[in-house]
Amino acid sequence: MPDHKLTRRTVLRGLGTAIALPWLEGMTSTARAAVSADGSGAPLRLAYFFVPNGMHMPDWVPEQEGPLEKLPAILQPLAEHKSKLTVLSGLTLNGGRALGDGPGDHARCVASYLTGAHPYKTDGKNIKNGISIDQAAALVVGGQTRFPSLELGTEPSSQGGRCDSGYSCVYTSNMSWRTPTSPMTKETNPQALFDRLFGSGEVAEDQQGQQRRSRYRKSILDLVSDEAQSLQKRLGSADRRKLDEYLYAVRQIERDIAQSEKLDTTETGVDDFPRPAGRPKEFADHVRLMMDLMVLAMQTDSTRVMSYMFTNAGSNRSYPSIDVRAGHHNLSHHGNDKEKQAQISKINQHHASIFCHFLDRLASTPDGDGTLLDHSMIMYGSGLADGNRHAHHDLPILLAGNACDTIKPGQYIRYPKDTPLANLYLGMLRRLGDEANSFADSTEPLEGLS
Prior knowledge:
Elements: E1 11-14, E2 17-20, H1 29-35, E3 45-50, E4 66-67, E5 85-92, H2 105-111, H3 133-141, E6 150-153, E7 162-164, E8 167-168, H4 169-173, E9 177-179, E10 182-183, H5 190-198, H6 203-216, H7 220-223, H8 225-233, H9 237-260, H10 265-268, H11 283-299, E11 305-309, H12 328-332, H13 338-363, E12 366-367, E13 370-371, E14 376-381, E15 397-400, E16 411-420, H14 422-431
Parallel strand pairs: 3-11, 3-14, 5-16, 6-11
Antiparallel strand pairs: 1-2, 4-16, 5-15, 7-8, 9-10, 12-13, 14-15
């Protein structure tokens, strides 16, 4: 490695490999100022999570406004992070409503979730939606990172087909839109995401590196070991420890991905039988592995904007691991059946417990003068409230993180009826330094968060 000052862009390079570094105290003041307007060295990160089929609202809404004294049942898995949570009620996606288009609430709920727009009803190629908040944010800060944004999920995006009462499957499987006619396809394969994050950026070289690792079963860390050892000699003790922890996390994710590529030998009878897709068999393991990679992307400032769909809209996935064997979408049409409602709440709690893994990782990862969670604004929720009524008002929306001290978490806020969800998005753009006057159907930046 050339003998130069460390910057935020410094990487460890090997054949087909480029490992970006986490924030280190030894990085120059120039690099610190370049990523943070207040000089703290901590850029604001945004991440958006979507869960399908609404929420069992009686188990989501806190008992009273103000400080979060007691979390409701669905949010109980996040209790350890209560002081970093902000629960919002009263927010509405008017674009998700029928507005004369009839059925198709699941397609509309995800198509409007980040856009605030009303998607044009079609199952053909003439799709039309709106620009999503993540892509609007990427236009503001995306030029400062390797990847302007990352669009991720558990189930693949569709390019066409009919999915929901005359709506294209494009709407049900994509929530990120670069333009009104250009959705951003999700990456669902942890191996592909890993290679994207740690590839050198040169296709031919990346392929050589992947082939070499496959041939010799090498970790990417083996390919950059010389540069890593050289860097260690130039760091102080605190930075050496931080780098060791980061490289250990990279290696652990490699091992998790490798393990996910093996079939259960009790099913195949053959040791180490390769799984072509490279996705963990268990849903929760798949999501957590993708979340681990998201944390690394944030830690290395590879991107500051991400989105993640737990499943596509209207998912009828069952969850035998938590003893819920009926399909989620079928259960969401509960008709006030208490047993079905209890099963929905159980699924909602399961999703929250998986989301907690992401918050755990953010809260335990140092970043500048705090943690990644301190310097992030994470949104989690759904484009429907009660799935039985297909309600697009009073949505279940949760924020996590301090957003670089521009949010005062640990509270529950109820807004007036039909307050646009886009008001929250307009406030997010303002926090990034964009002086936008509007976003979708916003009326003003959402108040009361700071």
